[in-house]
Amino acid sequence: MAKPWATFGVDLHLEPTGGGVRRGLTDALREAVRTGRLAPGTRLPSSRALAADLGVARNTVADAYADLVAEGWLTARQGSATRVSDRTVVPPAGAPPRPREPGRPTHNLVPGTPDLASFPRAQWLKAARRALATAPYQALDYGDPRGRIELRTALAGYLSRARGVRADPEHILVCAGFSHGLRLLGAVLRARGARTVAVESYGLDVHWNLLAAAGLRTVPLPFDERGTDPGELTDEAAVLLTPAHQFPMGGTLHRDRRAAVVEWARRTGGLVVEDDYDGEFRYDRQPVGALQGLDPDHVVHAGTASKSLAPGLRLGWLVLPPGLMEEVLAAKGGIDSCGSLDQLTLAEFLVSGAYDRHVRAARLRYRRRRDALVAELARRAPRVHATGIAAGLHVVLRLPPGTEQSALRAAAWQGLAVHGLHRYQHPEATVERRDALVVGYGTPPDHAWSGALEALCAVLPE
What we know:
By secondary structure, the chain is α/β, with parallel strands linked by helices. The protein contains 13 helices and 17 strands. Strands 4-12-11-10-9-5-6 form a seven-stranded mixed beta sheet, sandwiched between helices. Strand 13 and strand 14 form a beta hairpin.
């Protein structure tokens, strides 16, 4: 029969040293508390459990605890566990100082995240319970490197219905967000001998850096009022686009250019990587179908739950052309990099209709914010022109020439986090300089939106 101390209590690693068992134990405990290894409030094992773990007499542990309680290092109450006292931790001699965290802004309008406070916790919990209750026990084992079949099947149905993607579960790979998927595709392209990838003149430097880390040079394409111009595509191995809602400019790739990109891929064998950036959110226009629907053999459709739900879920997907799966799996290392339970929960969330309901509710909420932003700009900053407002979670505010840096400085004084457009321009792009702010109106929680909007208007030229 197992002894009670083997199954009850908490674990505590100690190495008593010095003269005598009691003194060594007392010194080891004191040092663990003094240096912060045992944080204030930490619950310690009972004297019986710790004595059994260390192979010493129970009275020895009880006496050591009593000594440290008397010295103020520990606290003990009748009928309650012994805990570490709330006191200042003295770092060991020679330890580097802990870096200070930079001050957090009062208002955050940096694009790239949704309103995290609106994450559907109750609905997600219900889906998680249903998924866990019905999951086969094999779901807790090492999984298929492509991802759970339940999620891939649910995604195939949803993407076909809502985004016009021609998807088969066998051609879908679940990954840990778009950056992970792009890293895998970059490794595949480099293994094929590729040297360059065409990108948009405006985009995210993290994506360009990921491709550079794979040994690929990024070449920016021209950009105008109809979006990215594919006319200069030649022998690049691939092109990375955000055709449904360009980030950060906010437009939709013109239909003629969509056709031209696909025609280039067919002619040259090049690969089109379609980043479906916040494609779920549109307000004043009809939904734009996925580019992948025009040619599944040459277009990779990449999507995530980062904008529709939360980036912390680390759930994304690649809809791959036939024949590309094995190369991507090899780059992935043959492992499932996303938690099975989260995948099963998202599958249930999709199949039950909870995802559609959440997206529709979020779409209405974000549209109201956008409308309030546009109305306030017209009233308080008529010289500022908002573009890219028909969809997405951000807007580009065109400023008078030469005023972007001064607006950013004023924003910093207001405690407002916001980015300038120049931050998103590719270093080799030859586009005309545009002074603008890229405002993520989806980022603040509802209760902070009015204050963030007020701070924004305060830094804009009237």
